[in-house]
Structure formats: C-alpha cells, structure tokens
Write a structure and sequence with these properties.
Elements: H1 19-22, H2 25-49, H3 57-81, E1 94-101, H4 115-129, E2 139-141, H5 156-160, H6 166-179, E3 182-191, E4 194-202, E5 209-213, H7 233-236, E6 252-257, H8 274-281, H9 284-292, E7 294-304, H10 311-315, E8 326-331, H11 339-356, E9 360-364, E10 370-372, E11 389-396, H12 404-408, H13 411-434
Parallel strand pairs: 1-2, 2-3, 7-8, 8-9
Antiparallel strand pairs: 1-11, 3-4, 4-5, 6-7, 9-10
Helix pairs in contact: 2-3, 2-11, 6-8
Organism: Leptospira interrogans serovar Copenhageni str. LT2050
Transmembrane segments: 24-51, 63-82, 412-431
Domain CN hydrolase: 95-397
Length: 435
C-alpha cells in the first residue's frame, strides 16, 4: 500500500448479501470472499458465452466450477445449521450484556468548552443505563465518544490539559457499583505526553481498569499524515486530532460475579466525588465476597471504530495462548451523512464474527448498534441510525470452536497465489518452447 488508507473496501464485502456464501469467510476470510466473488462471476460468464459449445473445454471447465460453487454453498448451509453444544450444559457460560445508544451529536472541537453540551451528554448516557438496573447485567457497553474529550485517569498531565473528568469517572463507578457489572467504555488519556484513544474496561471485581490503545488511527480524522513535513496542513484540517497509535493487541479480561448487584445504590449526589466510590471498591470484605462468588472470567477482543474493518488486526489476537471469547466494537458513526454509510460500515464489520467464529457486539453512539452470533446471524433487533435506545441480551461464551481462518490466517490464499504464479510460468514456458 502506497497511500494512507481511510476505509478498506474489499470485493468480498459485496457478497455480504448472501449469508450462505459468507460462511466461506470462516475458511479464508474476506480476501477469500473476494476470490469467490470473482470465481462465481467468471464461471457464469463463461457458461453463458460457451453454452452453445457444450463440447468445448471452456464449457466443461465452467460445469466443474459450478460443482465447486455448489459445494461451497452446501458448506455455508451446513455451518448455518450447525450449532455448537455448550461445554457444560448444566451450568453454561452466558454473559448478560446491556448496550446503550445515546445518539448524541458529534463532539466537534468547538463543543469541548461547552459545559452545557457536556452536561447534557453525560446525563443522557447516565439516564439510559439507570432504568435497566433490574436486568442485572454482567457487562455494560458504552459506545465510542458517548462522553467525548475526556478520560478517567486522575493524573497531573490529564488535569493540565483538562482531559480528566471527575464526573465521567463518577458515572462509570456509580454504574458498576449499583449494578455489579463491568463497564466497557471509550476515553482519552495522556500517557507520557502521548494522547491515546482507548477502549477501557472497569472491573467490578477489584475496581481496576484495563485499557487498550487504538492501534489503527483514521488519517485526517485522528492524526494528520505528513504533518511534520507539511505543518500548514494543520490549518486546513483543524478538526484533526493528535492521537498516538498503540503498539500491541491487548485482550480485556472481565469477571462475572454471582449476586453482585448492590440493592442499596450509592449516593448519586457524589458523582463529582469519585474517590467516595473508589473507597467502597477497595473494601477488603467486599472484595473477598466477590472472589468467593466469582463464576468465571471472560476475555474481550476490543475493536475501536473502523479497526473492525481490518481482518489483520483481529488475527493478531489468535497468535497468543489466551484466546478471545467475544468481539466488541465500539464506534462513532454520527459523522456519516446517511444511513447507507452506516449500513456499509456495519456490514463490513459483521464478517469478523464469521471469520473468527465468535459473537460480535457492535455498539455505535448514533447507530447502527447490532449483535451477531458466530455465523453472522443477528441476535437482537438493531438500534437504527440516529435512534436512542438500549438493548439487554445474553450471549454464550462456552460453545466456541476456532475457525480454520483463525488457525491458519491467509496462508491458504498465499499458497494459492504461488500455485497460480507457478502454473502461469509453466504455461508461458511451454508456449515459448513450441514457438
């Protein structure tokens, strides 16, 4: 690649209209779907052109190709109908999730100092979660930029740049304290003078926060390419942020605890004093009880915004011993002008569920928020574009089987490309000998 890539559109995304053919992505990913699309199109083109010449080599080849396509389609039907059994049917590993979509306006820089905007935004996020406390979720998912501009690390550099927000930290702590749930959210923090865009998981078990730094930044949106060489670009792209990319993939580990809900909610008037809640999380007695009631831990593969469109970023997580159990993509599509763009973004992300064989939660600040199972089949009614709403649902984490694609990646495609190149060289050399 010789240019800065914004949104990666693959030919394989065009096959997303067929959930059956899409299952082929579990073997060879979106690149394999690109080949499949070309293969199907070429087969039918040759079949139509040589239909009158049934004894021709081309027609017979197209018939053989049709048989291959039929086998691929049959595989898709099999995978859709096949349901993995739980490893422990008596006590299945289910994760109850609450996902919110506040549909707040895009956080442009001119709103950063607008106290009324920030107050209204935080209040909306908070109010969406409060009515659902009866559902007792194990995980609350808050989308990207739901609370823009701020972070929850109370450090000197964050305070100096007015990034730290005690109210934001108080909201996260209150939600976790009252529901007993872990809270997944987006925040900004300075790390040794490097501004990071992060997916953070606040853990109810010990009151600690795990953070993943976004690795693939959006050019001209989250950073300015070639800014050092051409400083004047900053005056043209004034809305462009100054984020620094993360270096490594990182799983976020959460915990499901029995009877974790607090029936006496913490004092809501102390949202601006998060240290009050912090003290309660540090209670030795409470922490001991949580350890005693811990059911299991679960691992999240975090994807921030358009990172979910890059299959390579997802494959990185399957090189380690500990594997992810669920993919969670939090994103901000409020910048899009139309619903069509949001659907295209969402459709491209859905392929990651099929490639990995994992459930995928997509939480968007303005829509479209969806949940898919390991086959890319919707599990809930989506929250539409520019709608406000919440969804409470449960996903299974103990019936996961790794796919061929997560085990071997793009190896098959590389082998296929090499074989094509070798066959082409042999073909050319034979022609030269005859001539």
């Amino acid at each position: 690649m010789i240019t800065f890539q914004i949104f990666p559109w693959y030919w394989g995304n065009l096959i997303s209209g067929s959930i059956v053919f899409e299952q082929f992505a579990s073997i060879c990913g979106v690149y394999g779907l690109s080949f499949l699309l070309l293969f199907i199109s070429s087969t039918f083109l040759i079949l139509v052109n040589y239909y009158k010449y049934k004894n021709s080599k081309e027609f017979k080849t197209s018939i053989a190709s049709l048989i291959c396509i039929a086998f691929i389609y049959r595989f898709g039907l099999y995978r859709i109908g096949y349901i993995n059994q739980s490893q422990n049917e008596l006590k299945p590993k289910n994760l109850s999730v609450l996902m919110i979509q506040p549909d707040t306006s895009p956080g442009t820089k001119d709103l950063k100092a607008d106290a009324s905007y920030l107050s209204a935004t935080m209040s909306k996020v908070f109010s969406l979660a409060i009515p659902t406390f009866e559902n007792s979720p194990s995980l609350i998912v808050i989308p990207e930029s739901a609370i823009p501009f701020h972070g929850t690390i109370d450090s000197e550099e964050n305070r100096k740049e007015k990034i730290y927000s005690s109210t934001m930290e108080g909201i996260i702590l209150y939600l976790s304290k009252h529901t007993g749930a872990d809270v997944l959210f987006n925040e900004l923090n300075l790390d040794e003078n490097k501004l990071r865009n992060q997916v953070s998981l606040f853990k109810n078990l010990d009151g600690k926060t795990e953070r993943y730094n976004k690795r693939r930044l959006l050019p001209f949106g989250e950073y300015l390419p070639m800014e050092k060489n051409f400083p004047f670009l900053r005056s043209i792209f004034q809305e462009t942020s100054r984020y620094v990319p993360g270096e490594f993939p990182k799983l976020l580990i959460g915990n499901k605890i029995q009877n974790q809900r607090s029936f006496l909610p913490p004092e809501i008037s102390k949202l601006n004093e998060p240290k009050t809640y912090r003290y309660e999380f540090s209670s030795i007695v409470e922490h001991t009880n949580k350890i005693r009631n811990l059911e299991y831990s679960y691992s999240i593969l975090p994807l921030l915004c358009y990172e979910a469109m890059f299959t390579e970023l997802v494959l990185d997580y399957f090189q380690n011993e500990q594997k992810p159990e669920v993919l969670i993509n939090i994103t901000n599509d409020s910048w899009f002008d139309s619903e069509l763009e949001a659907y295209q973004h969402s459709g491209a992300v859905r392929l990651r569920a099929i490639e990995t064989g994992l459930p995928l939660i997509r939480s968007a600040v303005s829509g479209i928020s969806e949940v898919w199972d390991a086959r890319g089949i919707p599990m809930i009614v989506p929250i539409g574009f520019h709608e406000t709403g919440t969804r409470a649902f449960s996903i299974r984490l103990d019936a996961i089987e790794s796919t061929i694609y997560t085990r071997f990646g793009n190896s098959f495609l590389w082998i296929f490309c090499i074989l094509i190149l070798i066959s082409r060289l042999i073909f050319v050399s034979r022609i030269e000998r005859k001539s």
